[in-house]
C-alpha cells in the first residue's frame, strides 16, 4: 500500500507564538492542511481534502471571513488535492473514497473536486455541521463546500479494538490493496 502525503492548504497564521511556541507574538507560523492519498484495490482513498479549487477561485463565498483573516491563506491551485492527484498521474475519478476526520472548512473544501467519490464521515459530525449555530459554527463549517455532494456513508462510533483504539471498522466499499 502506498501513502502519499499532501499539503492541501498553507496557512501563515499571525500570532505564531500562540500556535508554534516559537518567535514573538507577531511571528507568523506556517501551518498546512495535511491530507493523505492512499492507494487501494478499490481505487484511491483521500483522507481529508484541504481546500478545493472553488475555495481558491471564490474564497469570499466559500471560506468564512474569520478563517480568511486569521489564517492568512496562500491561495494556490497547486496545493489542492485535485491538482496533486493529477500531478501523481491519476484522474479525479480514481479517487473513490474520501474519509473526513471532520467537516471543518480546511478539511472538507475539496469534496466538490471529486463528485463521484464516496464520502465517509461520522453521523454525529455530519449532523453537527448541518445544524445552525453561532459565529463559531459559521467560522468552522461551510455547507457550500459539501452540501451538493451525493455520495455519503455515515458511521456510528462502534467497532472492534485495534492497538488500543476503539471503534475501528472497515469502510463501506473499500478494501486494502494486497501486495
Short synopsis of the structure:
By secondary structure, this protein is an alpha/beta fold. It contains 8 helices and 9 strands. The protein has a 7-stranded mixed beta sheet.
Tell me what you see in this structure:
- By secondary structure, this protein is of the alpha/beta class.
- It has a domain at 3-8 and 34-52 and 80-168: Ribonuclease Z/Hydroxyacylglutathione hydrolase-like (Metallo-beta-lactamase, Chain A, 4-Layer Sandwich).
- The protein has 8 helices and 9 strands.
- The strands form 2 sheets. A 7-stranded mixed beta sheet has the order 4-1-2-3-5-6-7. It has a two-stranded antiparallel ribbon with strand order 8-9.
- The relative contact order is 0.18.
Which labels suit this protein?
alpha/beta, 179 residues, two-stranded antiparallel sheet, Metallo-beta-lactamase, Chain A
Going by CATH, the architecture of the domain at 3-8 and 34-52 and 80-168 would be 4-Layer Sandwich
Which range best describes the helical content: under 10%, 10-25%, 25-40%, 40-55%, 55-70% or over 70%? 25-40%
Query: What ranges have pLDDT less than 50 throughout 5 or more consecutive residues?
Result: none
User: What's the CATH topology label of the domain at 3-8 and 34-52 and 80-168?
Assistant: Metallo-beta-lactamase, Chain A
Number of helices: 8
Q: Estimate the global geometry from the Cα principal axes.
A: globular
Report the CATH superfamily of the domain at 3-8 and 34-52 and 80-168: Ribonuclease Z/Hydroxyacylglutathione hydrolase-like
Q: How would you classify the quaternary structure? A: single chain
Strand proportion, as a percent range, falls in: 25-35%
Strand order of the largest sheet: 4-1-2-3-5-6-7
The span between the termini is: 7 Å
Order of helices and strands: EHEEHHHEHEHEHHEEE
Provide the CATH top-level class of the domain at 3-8 and 34-52 and 80-168.
Alpha Beta
For the biggest sheet, the summary is:
7 strands, mixed
Amino acid at each position: 500500500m502506498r501513502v502519499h502525503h499532501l499539503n492541501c492548504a498553507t496557512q501563515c497564521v499571525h500570532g505564531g507564538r500562540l500556535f508554534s511556541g516559537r518567535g514573538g507574538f507577531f511571528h507568523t507560523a506556517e501551518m498546512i492542511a495535511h491530507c493523505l492519498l492512499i492507494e487501494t484495490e478499490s481505487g484511491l482513498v483521500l483522507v481529508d481534502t484541504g481546500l478545493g479549487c472553488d475555495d481558491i477561485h471564490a474564497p469570499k463565498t466559500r471560506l468564512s471571513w474569520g478563517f480568511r483573516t486569521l489564517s492568512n491563506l496562500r491561495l494556490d491551485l497547486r496545493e489542492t488535492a485535485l491538482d496533486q492527484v493529477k500531478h501523481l498521474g491519476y484522474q479525479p475519478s480514481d479517487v473513490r473514497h474520501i474519509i473526513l476526520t471532520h467537516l471543518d472548512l480546511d478539511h472538507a473544501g475539496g469534496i466538490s473536486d471529486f463528485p463521484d467519490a464516496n464520502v465517509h464521515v461520522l453521523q454525529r459530525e455530519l449532523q453537527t455541521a448541518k445544524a445552525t449555530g453561532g459565529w463559531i459554527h459559521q467560522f468552522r463549517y461551510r455547507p457550500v463546500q459539501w452540501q451538493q455532494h451525493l455520495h455519503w456513508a455515515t458511521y456510528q462510533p462502534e467497532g472492534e479494538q485495534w492497538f488500543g483504539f476503539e471503534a475501528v471498522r472497515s469502510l463501506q466499499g473499500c478494501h486494502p490493496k494486497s501486495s
